[in-house]
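All the exercises in this workshop are built on plain-text protein records. There is nothing in a record beyond a sequence line and a structure line. A learned vocabulary of local backbone shapes supplies the integers on the structure line. The question running through the whole workshop is how a given chain folds. Here is such a record, shown just as it appears in the course material:

***
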Amino acid sequence: MTASRIARRLLPSPETLEKTKGLGWLGRYLRDRPWLWVAHRRRVALGVAVGLAVGVIPLPTQMLLAAVAAIACRANVAAAVAATWLTNPLTLVPIWGLAIFLGRLALNVHGPIDAPQALALDWSSPASWWPALGNWVDQLGTPLLVGLPLAGLLLGALAYVIVYLGWWAAIRWERRRRLRQRALHA
């Protein structure tokens, strides 16, 4: 199976997006602009890079922002939206650790890291969650805020290279397999 077939199988279609609540407008937009949807090596790699770069920054509208950024960069929109899912509660700690490291490096901050107090959420009062989370992030400080965009750029660039080279390797492997089959049948 070729890399583009795998990508087409994994990525949702514009019709699927049209049926998804909140993303219907995106499906209608993409149907008329196939160049934003094509499963091409460069466009998918760029879409993954854009999605991961946007997904690192903790926003409630990551998928929407990734779609808009992918449209602006002429990247594969489905790959950008799907790449935001790589940032989740399981990957939050390593990504924020990288962000703090990069932020401290960029700000030339040395010495031990002051550990923030444990995040204490009052589960009976959901209205207090955002202020508590904001206070906790405030304790992490400037290195996190400087490091998040840097981590997004670094991880996005790394994702681009991985997807591009992985796709290239899959194409090369498929071509070699076909040549071997032709040689056997000849």
Observations:
- The mean pLDDT is 83.
- DSSP finds nine helices and no strands in the chain.
- The two ends are 22 Å apart (CA to CA).
